[in-house]
Amino acid sequence: MSALRTDALPVTAERGSATWRLIKAESTLCVRDKVAPLWGIGFPLILLIVLGSISDLREPVEPGGVLTYFDLYVPVLILFNLAILATASLPTTLAGYRENGVLRRMRTTPVGPARVLTAQLVANFAIAVVAMVLFLAVARLGFGVDLPKHLPGFALAWLLAAAALLAIGLLITALAPGRGPATAIGTVLFFPMMFFAGLWVPISQMPPLLRNIAHYTPLGAGMGAFQDAYLGDFPSALPLLTLAGYAAGCSIIAVRWFRWE
Amino acid sequence: MPPVIEVRDLHKRYGDKVAVEDVSFTVQEGEVFGILGPNGAGKTTTVECVEGLRRQDRGEIKVLGLDPRHDRAELTRLLGVQLQAGLLPDRLQVAEALELYGSFYPRPADWRELMHGLGLADKAKTRYAKLSGGQKQRLSIALALVGSPRVAILDELTTGLDPQARRDTWELIEGVRARGVTIVLVTHFMEEAERLCDRLALIDAGRVVTVDTPAGLTERARVGQRIQFRPSRPLDDRLLTALPDVSAVTRRGELVIVDGSDNALNAVTTVLARNQIVAERLRVEQASLEDAFVQLTGKRLESGPR
């Protein structure tokens, strides 16, 4: 024990930056946590494959329309992934960090807890990118679903949707007093959000009232923007602004209310 | 040489409850400074203000010339902290945690050596949640040292450790001190304070009762000797109570227990010899820091770690 040295050693070269190491560590932890890989990627991927094998879903949603039911499920499942990350993975992890004093411990280091938060966001974002690319590829190669015709428009819509959902995740973290409540709030939010994304009933087949509500929910807006991009148009302003509004609004409230301990 | 830590007239309240009433002390370079007191005395609040985790309501704190309220960024590079309840993500492995935390500092220690030195090498790939209480404790000590700090603040260092692990940890701390790291040790465990600390601040109800060396404290408390023996023949207590150096005589079974001043042993053995009584199983206890604490504050500390 006494042979221990804490002299500074020339290890700087192999260290890499603390931020990068944190991002790597948080990504590893996200994968080990299993919520993101299992529920965020595995489950929607299986759903995609199962739904892709049902021939009834290859009928157009509207008579003479371009998009089939299955075509619509691809963006819905991409939103499913974002919703899992935002309501289950991110807030549970961060609220747990706060509850267990992980963030407090970070406050005593030169790095500080804000970078843990950033690293968690980056890790979840990376998982979301992997899921999005994977779902598009499986749908294209496995089931012949065309990629969105307006790719830049789709990319922008996806980025805004990811920003809006991660901001909602941060908001849950900020408002929930602990890990348990964070999980509860996330679960309660998940189902209505997915409903308005059209997981059970396509938005176009909802009654007018629900359809109008859907346009102003984060996932409904995301779905609207994705559909525009699939049909080859640049997404219209309303869904994009709705998503940007959620991203900005939730972030601002989250930052104001956030507690480190 | 200016002190490494200087705390003056510290005051901190939480709502109506005063946690720290008035605390002042200085810590010199290279010493192990103990902050000793019962639970709820304000020890942890005091060091949290020093660490910059809390802002005091009144009073001045300087650590290596820095103000923890304003120079946090600079301070965190020089100060290693072990929190009483400072945790890691459940799924982070020991080696990962040490490597990661090392990367936060400009001149980190060799985390592999720390891991070996603290007996965690065979747990390198074990997740934090799977560690025992003692292993978690040792990891948190390693994390406090991984940045090669000039000052380390260790809160309840050996709480939850078994006796062997506690002695190993003490040895480790002595090794750290030998390298010139100034150490502040928060404890309510007497044996630890006696063994490790150069000086101690005794804190009770948010105030510093006294600051002294462990030996100085016991001396100042004027608690004398306790002598315990089994007389070879029946013994009349009055022979002993008559002695001016003896303050009390009690019996526990066949044992006689005599409390008295530092000269009591001489006086008692003389009387026994004169009466041809042999003191079998003779034991003499010096006053402990614990006795001194009781004497100085009128309260008992817990005798061991929680």
From TrEMBL, chain A:
Is the Chloroplast keyword given for this protein?
no
Keywords in alphabetical order, please: Antibiotic resistance, Cell membrane, Membrane, Transmembrane, Transmembrane helix, Transport
Chief subcellular location equals membrane
Cellular compartments annotated: Cell membrane; Membrane
Q: Which residues form the ABC transmembrane type-2 domain?
A: 35-261
**Membrane-topology annotation of the record:** Multi-pass membrane protein
Which Pfam family, an example, fits this chain?
Answer: ABC2_membrane
Task: Please state which protein family the record places this protein in.
Answer: Belongs to the ABC-2 integral membrane protein family.
What is the name of this protein? Transport permease protein
From TrEMBL, chain B:
The answer to keyword Metal-binding applying to this record is no
InterPro entries, alphabetically? AAA+_ATPase (IPR003593), ABC_transporter-like_ATP-bd (IPR003439), ABC_transporter-like_CS (IPR017871), ABC_transporter_ATP-binding (IPR050763), P-loop_NTPase (IPR027417)
Pfam families listed in its UniProt record = ABC_tran
Please list the GO terms describing molecular function: ATP binding
Top-level taxon: Bacteria
Where does it primarily localize?
A: membrane
**SMART domains in UniProt:** AAA
Domain ABC transporter: where? Answer: 5-230
Q: Does the keyword Cell membrane apply?
A: no
Which keywords, in A-to-Z order, does the entry hold? Antibiotic resistance, ATP-binding, Nucleotide-binding, Transport
What PROSITE patterns does this protein's entry cite?
ABC_TRANSPORTER_1, ABC_TRANSPORTER_2
Where in or outside the cell is it found? Cell membrane
How does the entry describe its membrane topology? Peripheral membrane protein
Please name the PANTHER family in this protein's record. Answer: ABC TRANSPORTER ATP-BINDING PROTEIN (PTHR42711:SF16)
UniProt-recorded name of the protein: ABC transporter ATP-binding protein
